[in-house]
Amino acid sequence: MPAQRKHLRLPLESTTFIELPAPRPLQGALERTIACKTLDVSRGGLQAMLAEELVVGAIMQIGVALPGSDRTLQVAGEVRWCLNSKDAQYPWIAGFQLLKADNTDIEHWTALITAMET
């Protein structure tokens, strides 16, 4: 886990959806979406508990329902780390660095988190 953080972390439990890439796209396997929950969020990232291990360095599409938003925000994030947890329902904890990507809600995300920090 990173020792230094660029942004303030806010504790926030929210239902989150992560789109996993197809395991064998050339063989017709489909993407799938898993439900998990955030533990904390910041302007530049989030930490989530989930039922499956993720590959560090993978880029994922993430949907998060934040307070103050009337819809699920869609962001792109890179898996920075993934560790075992002691939770039976969510045996993995992963940290994501959010990316400035086209066709995402990253600007709206940043504005909402900035408002929560005050």
Strand content: 35-45%
Please state the overall shape, judged from the principal axes of the Cα atoms: globular
Output the structural class.
mainly beta
Biggest β-sheet: strands ordered side by side in the sheet = 2-3-4-7-6-5
Instruction: Give me the CATH superfamily.
Output: predicted glycosyltransferase like domains
Order of helical and strand elements: EEEEEEEH
N-to-C CA distance: 26 Å
The CATH topology assignment is: Thrombin, subunit H
| Number of structural domains | 1
What ranges have pLDDT less than 50 throughout 5 or more consecutive residues? none
Task: Write up this protein.
- With about 120 residues, the protein is mainly β.
- It has one domain (about 10-115): predicted glycosyltransferase like domains (Thrombin, subunit H), CATH 2.40.10.220.
- Helix content is about 10%, strand content about 40%.
- The chain contains one helix and seven strands.
- β3 and β4 form a beta hairpin.
List descriptors:
Thrombin, subunit H, mainly beta, single chain, 118 residues
Topology:
Elements: E1 10-11, E2 15-20, E3 32-41, E4 45-50, E5 59-64, E6 73-84, E7 92-99, H1 106-117
Antiparallel strand pairs: 1-3, 2-3, 2-5, 3-4, 4-7, 5-6, 6-7
What's this entry about, in short?
This protein is mainly beta and 118 residues long. The chain has one helix at 106-117; strands at residues 10-11, 15-20, 32-41, 45-50, 59-64, 73-84, 92-99.
